[in-house]
């Protein structure tokens, strides 16, 4: 290195510092393990070559089953769903796998007078990324709501749109996230 080349510092890259400073043992539990109606959203985070990302971090934010956010700015009043905290965080394991235990969200108001289909907002942090990427998880059984959702219906490529629809699993849903390449998950510019 010469004197004019800056060195990489922790503020210039996301990983591997995620597991040092952002690990939260209770993070995957948006609700308690024995909460009625709890479902798992499980998946694998992979890179552009399809390889697992073992040092990533997945964060979720969502409305409660009544479609209210746990935030004072929700014009309908803050959520008051017992035992639900709306936010989840899970770091990926050595196989790139993650899991969030939560409740199915309700529909929420969209732009103008639209209604957004039930969904979960997802932020992805990983090595080599200067900023998080943001996507959404939609649920396959909400066919009509998904078709009318102003965000999901704005994605015209059916293959791309399918990357946002979770797949049913034994104890909830499967939602794999691919950062680049073939079958890359749709990410939003926010």
Q: How would you characterize this protein structure?
A:
The chain is mainly beta. The chain has one domain: Aromatic compound dioxygenase (Protocatechuate 3,4-Dioxygenase, subunit A). Helices cover 8% and strands 26% of the residues. It contains 3 helices and 11 strands, in the order H-E-E-E-E-E-E-E-E-H-H-E-E-E. It has helices at residues 18-21, 143-148, 158-162; strands at residues 39-46, 57-62, 87-91, 97-102, 108-109, 115-116, 119-125, 133-138, 167-169, 172-174, 177-178. Strands 1, 4, 9, 10 and 11 form a 5-stranded mixed β-sheet that branches. Strands 3-2-7-8 form a 4-stranded antiparallel β-sheet, with no helix packed on it. Strand 5 and strand 6 (115-116) form a beta hairpin. The chain is globular. The chain starts with 17 loop residues before the first helix and ends in a 12-residue tail after the last strand.
């Amino acid at each position: 290195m010469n004197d004019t080349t800056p060195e990489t510092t922790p503020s210039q890259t996301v990983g591997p510092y995620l597991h040092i400073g952002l690990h939260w043992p209770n993070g995957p539990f948006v609700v308690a393990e024995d909460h009625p109606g709890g479902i798992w959203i499980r998946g694998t985070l992979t890179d552009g070559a399809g390889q697992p990302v073992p040092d990533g971090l997945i964060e979720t934010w969502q409305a409660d089953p009544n479609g209210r956010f746990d935030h004072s700015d929700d014009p309908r009043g803050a959520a008051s769903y017992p035992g639900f905290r709306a936010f989840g965080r899970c770091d990926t394991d050595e196989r790139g796998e993650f899991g969030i235990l939560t409740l199915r969200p309700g529909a929420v108001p969209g732009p103008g007078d639209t209604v957004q289909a039930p969904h979960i907002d997802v932020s992805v942090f990983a090595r080599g990324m200067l900023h998080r990427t943001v996507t959404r998880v939609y649920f396959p059984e909400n066919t009509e709501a998904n078709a009318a959702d102003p965000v999901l219906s704005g994605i015209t490529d059916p293959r791309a749109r399918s990357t946002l629809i979770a797949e049913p699993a034994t104890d909830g849903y499967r939602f794999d996230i691919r950062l680049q390449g073939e079958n890359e998950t749709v990410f939003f510019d926010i």
